Amino acid sequence: MNSTSSISANVNNIPVLNDTNFKKWKEHIIIVLGCMDLDFALREDRPSDLTSASTVEQRSTMEKWERSNRMSLMIMKHSIPEAIRGAILEETQAKAFLDQIANRFAANEKVETNTILSKLVSMRYKEKENIREYIMKMSNLVTRLKALKLELSEDILVHLVLISLPTQFSPFKISYNTQKEKWTLNELITQCVQEEERLKQEKIESAHLASTSQGFEINLAVVPTDTWWIDTGAITHISVTMQGCLRSRMPTDGERYIYVGNGNKATVKAIGLFILQLDSGCTLDLEETFVVPSFRQNLIFVSCLDKFGYCCSFGNGMSLDMFKNFKAEVENQLSKKIKVVRSDREGEYYGRYDGSGEQRPWPFAKYLMECGIVPQYTMPGTPSQNGVAERRNRTFKDMVRSMISHSTLPESLWGEAIKTAVYILNRVPSKAVAKTPYELWTSKKPSIRHLHVWGCPAEARPYKPNEKKLDSRTMSCYFVGYSERSRGFKFYDPSTRSLFETGNAKFIEDVELSGRESLRNVVFKEKYVNIPIITTGHGHIIFDDTIQNVQSITGIQDTPEIPPAQVMEPIQVHQEVTQQPQEPQVQVPLRRSTRERRSTISDDYVVYLQEHEFDMGLEDDPISVSQVKQSSDSEKWIEAMKDEMKSMKDNGVWDLVELPKGVKPIGCKWIFKTKRDSKGNIVRYKARLVAKGFTQKEDIDYKETFSPVSSKDSFRIIMALVAHYDLELHQMDVKIAFLNGNIDETIYMVQPENFESNGSKQLVCRLKRSIYGLKQASREWYRKFDQVITSFGFKKNTVDQCIYLKFSGSKFIILVLYVDDILLASSDVGLLHETKRFLSSEFDMKDLGNASFVLGIQIHRDRSRGILGLSQKAYIDKVLSRFGMSNCAPGDTPVAEGDKFSLHQCPKNELEKKDMERFPYASAIGSLMYAQVCTRPDIAYIVGMLDRYLSNPSMDHWKKAKRVMRYLQRTKDYMLTYRRSSHLEIVGYSDSDFAGCLDSRRSTSGYIFMLAGGAVSWKSVKQTLIASSTMEAEFIACYEASNHGIWLRNFVTQLQIVDGIEKPLRINCDNKATELYSKNNRSSSKSKHIDIKFLVVKEKVQSLQVSIEHISTNFMIADPLTKGLPPKVYHEHVAHMGVVHIDDVLE
């Protein structure tokens, strides 16, 4: 009993084997078996079989080995999950069984090595940790790497430890680097423990320091409660203590003393580096700081900051300097003189009274007297006497509040916001003066085409003189203003909290950010002015706290709001500068509807071209009748509205009747849309009257709403047959498709806007036919079309009910219906025109002739060579333009070999999630999805992979999406090609990876079906369960492929024009075990757990519906649908899919 309990206790201590712990599991197995003296079978091979001549010793050895072997096998299998145990071949010897497991998990050693090495180099010591234990953890990782055959020397480990230490250990690291001797690991541990104790002691001592100074508080890197003052009169930075000094040196003879204002001298103890950690998270490095213990306060010398590009503003004290600059500009640029200056009675303008009651003018007032300029002051407590300035200040405040509250930028950037507000107001006309201030000042009309939304995200390329070839060319930032003296823009980089200027940028201002928090209530302090120290170049924003208690004419302050009636007009005295001749007042029209459309931005502002006007998905189409009337194309829009109303009348869509009591009519709305060709040129102005069907109630206003739509697979199969049989391919458009449907319900609708019946505006429309917007409109149109077309001899394909076929002897015609678009593919021109005449007699049709552009897909044909290609170049250009990638560098592949995705990459907190809101990730994936569904099987895998993280994407996922766009930039001229062939047959390819999903360990299935040399159907999808082996994963992929293959087979069979379709549908896979399992009914312990629904593959193989065949991986063209591949292999597979450059197939 005791022996049994001991074995049970030991066995329970063995961890369960999984994908990541094989080394640990094996160690436990060997230890447990060794402790119980059961490891004999693992150490020794099986003895020779016993015979009658065997000795007692040989019999004892065999008995010991068999017991050890039996017990070892049971103990090992007990700690292995069933999923893994089922994938391992049966073994009767424990040693062979353990070797097989080791071989199975040998591939994981590379992953484990990479994981451990990444953890080792990324480790960082934290203050709360014990440094001895921390270094031992790093040493343990090195030991584990050594076991994985990656040996790191002790010297490398010492350097890795030093690199991982924080800035508090900087003097310690400098001390080590200056010594000639190298430390062993034990010596390093000893020295680090001593340094740790010293730092703890210093921290305790500094905690007792008390500071009574007042000023601008900054958190030190080491001493968190110290205070520093900004000083314009100092000659260098000064610290009163060595606390927080990261490195220091002794002063030279000339630096030993400094002299203060009263002539006394102070001794300099040392000169060193101090790093200030600000509340905003930024750091300020103070080089060459003098340590003077006799000083009472720490000082920051402003002039030293200026040398490094920093700028410090000190409120109204700069008013005189600013006025001098303004006066010089007026005199030089306008050749005029300033005669009057009006201001309030603040001290910097007016002065102060001394004790005798006399006014003592301050420098500003003195300067006005010296220049002969007349000052005019408001009476105390009457700010309305300076109404123009007060109202303008209020306008600035309102604009800044709005700009900041509608952005995600910090309030410390209010200075940039107010500069932008001034810049905009100088380019906007007023009611009083038709001309803008800019035009009055420069006599030139300003351009507003370069204006952008303040705070919008942008992709900018800053100037980097030391930029390397592989460095990132652009950076994600926010637009915060315009360059003052150059042609460019100013941007804020949130990662470094710095500003920089550049002329190369792409503004992402046409995408609404989702999930944004409620608008912030921006409140500015009334007496205290936030003075940010900002950079003039690519520097850091340092301070955004209060420096001094000031009031300013140009600062942002909340003064009492002045009612318009109390705002006094300025006294008209000496108007030489301010008075300008006025032109007659004109109404400024809305920019949206009257702006001139141009293809490029003017040379004044050289940026990446944002082809907003040419984006087929982002046209500035009117959204209301009022905008139509103001549009430059109003005549064309109104004509389109008249055509729509004529169609309503000709089709008898409604009768005007009195509205019955108790009945509420539904509304209607005009929808305006420009239709464009494959090059983006406008070919038609379309106005559509739609009902507001969202107000309809089920079972009262409608009963059923479903209507079928042809699938893209059906469309591609028809295109392949067109190429193979050289069919005629024409396109028609049903003008008012939905108006042809009849409705059984009684529905009342208000009269259309702008077309109300004269004298009968109180009447409503009782609908007799379906109209766009009704929930049942699409269904009623399909029922009507189906009834009409079947009466003409067409038969509906039961697999896809929007595909119709008609035979006339040996001639045939295929009709594809996609809502109101119709494709006709016929073997005979006469039958084609006969069908066209019939459709035109039944419906209002538009004959578009040879099909060239349908559903956003351009059709290219070379009938002499039997080639047809499907291209989405225009759509891809639109997508690239929409997401600012029109000028991006082309990419070689959409996904790199070995790229993996995981939930661990997703944002972990609200701050990271909020930062990702500025990227239109979901919109980008949706746009890529449409290209993948129509003509691009080569991006199916990566788009499907990125689609899994729509709810919580990370920056890594966004970068991968941009990589796909770069690939499309290179391959936008590629098209999906079909060719005439000697033998027409549908062939499928099925593939799967194994446990590719790092989160769920599920595999990804991929299949593709080929016809006429091109892909007609494909899919890449994550499997619904975890496969325990590669064979099971491949078998599940074959199940998905065979299901869809049967659908394709049934669809093509009903077309009755493809030879050889009665043969079993061939599906190729590159796993031999899968092929054998699909054809063999023998049960196996390794496959008995497979879900019964997947076994339908065997039934389909036996019934000769499909045939699973094995091919080499080199010919598996479905490989790009399951994983990333090397560029050369990837390009070969894509070419075999039929996705090739247009120049390679068309002459």
From TrEMBL:
Protein name according to UniProt: Retrovirus-related Pol polyprotein from transposon TNT 1-94
Q: Name one GO biological process term.
A: DNA integration
Asked if the record carries the keyword Repeat, the reply is: no
Q: Name one GO molecular function term.
A: nucleic acid binding
Ranges for domain Integrase catalytic:
265-445
At the highest ranks, the source species' classification is:
Eukaryota, Viridiplantae, Streptophyta, Embryophyta, Tracheophyta
* SUPFAM superfamilies listed in its UniProt record: DNA/RNA polymerases, Ribonuclease H-like
Sorted UniProt keywords: Aspartyl protease, Hydrolase, Protease
UniProt KW Protease keyword = yes
